[in-house]
Amino acid sequence: MSTLLAAALLLTACGPKAPPAAAGDAPADDLAEAAEPVEAPPPPPPPPAALKSIESEGMRVEWAVEGTELRVRMSAPGSGWVRVGFNSVRAQHLANMIVGWVDAEGAHVEDRFATDPPYIEPDVQLGGRADVTLVSGTEADGRTTVEFRIPLSSGDSYDLALTPGKIAYLILSYGETDDLAGHAVVRTAVEITL
Fold first, then answer.
1. pTM listed for this prediction
2. Which segments of 15-45 does DSSP mark as H helices, in order?
3. Could you say which DSSP state residue 157 is in?
4. How far is CA 178 from the centre of its chain?
5. Are 146 and 55 in contact (CB under 8 A)?
6. Residue 177: is it exposed, middle or buried by C-beta count within 10 angstroms (0-12/13-18/19+)?
7. 84, 94, 114, 141: most buried by Cβ count inside 10 Å?
8. Domains plus CATH for the chain?
9. Radius of gyration of the chain from its Cα atoms, rounded to whole angstroms
10. Rounded to whole angstroms, how far apart are CA atoms 56 and 22?
């Protein structure tokens, strides 16, 4: 029995040992304190909402409600200006109008309002605000395309408050040139559900 006990003690004393600590290694208890907390990466942004679309008189308008904004892509034949208005009735009068064009300096977009008689003036000249953000604009394949964002409800008296799921009227028009004072080639109105 004493031989077995002596052999067990000998094996225990000669068993595997922990590797020696390298110079500068922190003791195991200090590693938990020294480690920086790892933050999870932020979730990816949600995919863009699917665009609804409508075509009339050669113009195409695509739109999607994204949070508190409406994203709109409008296009028309040619290389002139393109314009979409938002109204609660099928008329240009008192519509919130967004006009865009592309020239040698790039893409442009303006927030305008159809006054009485129906002149289409920049909101800022009437005492309002420019509540439109340009996303992109191109002239390609014989069409001018301008994409922008507007708030659903800007609080500006020259902008129509828009409600998802409700009916609105789009007032569509485009010109042959980038001269915003030029006459429209086409002017039409279509009913949509936002």
1. 0.74
2. 28-34
3. T
4. 26
5. no
6. middle
7. 84
8. 52-193 (2.60.40.1210)
9. 33
10. 77
CB atoms under 10 Å from CB of 42, counted, come to 6
- pLDDT at residue 125, rounded to an integer: 95
**Strands 120-122 vs 167-175: parallel, antiparallel or unpaired:** unpaired
With 90 as the cut, is the pLDDT of residue 13 above it? Answer: no
Question: Which residues neighbour 92 within 8 Å (Cβ) at sequence distance 6 or greater?
Answer: 85, 114, 118, 171, 187, 189
For 76-141, give the DSSP string.
Answer: EESSS-EEEEEESSSSSTT-EEEEEEEETTEEEEEEEEE-SS--EEEGGGGT-----EEEEEEEET
Tell me the β-bridge partners of 69: 66, 151
pLDDT by residue (tens digit) across 97-150?
Answer: 999 999 999 999 999 999 987 789 999 999 999 999 999 999 999 999 999 999
Sign of CA dihedral 118, 119, 120, 123: negative
Q: What is the pLDDT of residue 41?
A: 79
Distances (CA, A) of 29 to 4, 23, 25, 26, 124: 37, 16, 11, 8, 66
pLDDT of residue 42: 76
pLDDT confidence bin for 43, thresholds 50/70/90: confident
